[in-house]
Amino acid sequence: MADEITLEVARYRPEVDSSPVMQSYQVPLREHWAVLDGLTYIKDQLDGTLSFRWSCRMGICGSCGMTVNGEPVLSCATFLTDYAPGPVRVEPLHNFPVIRDLVIDIEDFMAKLPTVKPWIVRDVQSPVEQGEYLQTPEELEEYQQYSMCINCMLCYSACPVYALEPEFIGPAAIALAQRYNLDSRDEGAAERLEVLSSPEGIWACTFVGECSAACPKGVDPAGAIQRYKLTAATQTVKNLLMPRSKR
């Protein structure tokens, strides 16, 4: 195995660049080094001006999402040896404005997320002294898969609908809404229905499935969207046949 590998890194410095340019760096090719380790080596040893996000280095925080050789991945969980002999092309996640180098602007997602109320909604809260809202293992299993989302934005980067229709609420937000809709403690499904069943919600999805393929946690946002399409369609029929029934 070679001692080094070339990283071709997208650089964008808004004060000097009109568009991103690629810059090549030679980094050590070590057996257990992830792409993030290569970028850290560049930052510490070769070019301190390189900008990128990272935090936990353990595939938990979701902050180090990048495009590596054309695929959206977590750079802390993507290893350089898998791309030997190189070069490895590292770019920011697609479909987002670039702030600087590999750092993207996720304000659009952050603005959309609260609209689906990704928290437990209850009409009446029981006093704390009455104890917890207990669940059976079966009730937990119903929504647990969708609770694994780490907001890494890989699904948005992979989504062809979001690329063409920026108004689309997007896979992660819808999957998180479904996580709470399926929670036995939640009573907010009716409040989420209008947003999720809007033209910018589930019906914008064409079920390409790239979001689920890119998800590093197996959340399957495409599956969550298709499942909710059935729920929304059923509720629409109920509302037509029984106008007083809104839940």
From TrEMBL:
UniProt GO BP: respiratory electron transport chain; tricarboxylic acid cycle
Protein name: Fumarate reductase iron-sulfur subunit
Reaction(s) this enzyme catalyzes, per UniProt: a menaquinone + succinate = a menaquinol + fumarate
Free-text cofactor note: Binds 1 [2Fe-2S] cluster.
Essential cofactor(s): [2Fe-2S] cluster; [3Fe-4S] cluster; [4Fe-4S] cluster
Family: Belongs to the succinate dehydrogenase/fumarate reductase iron-sulfur protein family.
Organism name: Kribbella antiqua
PANTHER family xref list: SUCCINATE DEHYDROGENASE [UBIQUINONE] IRON-SULFUR SUBUNIT, MITOCHONDRIAL (PTHR11921:SF29), SUCCINATE DEHYDROGENASE IRON-SULFUR PROTEIN (PTHR11921)
Record bears the keyword Kinase: no
Domain 2Fe-2S ferredoxin-type: 3-96
Keyword field: 2Fe-2S, 3Fe-4S, 4Fe-4S, Iron, Iron-sulfur, Metal-binding, Oxidoreductase, Tricarboxylic acid cycle
Residue ranges of every copy of the 4Fe-4S ferredoxin-type domain listed in the record: 140-169
Coiled-coil region: none
Pathway it works in: Carbohydrate metabolism; tricarboxylic acid cycle
The EC number(s) this enzyme carries: 1.3.5.1
Record-linked InterPro entries: 2Fe-2S_ferredoxin-like_sf, 2Fe-2S_ferredoxin-type, 2Fe2S_fd_BS, 4Fe4S_Fe-S-bd, 4Fe4S_Fe_S_CS, Beta-grasp_dom_sf, Helical_ferredxn, SDH/FRD_Iron-Sulfur
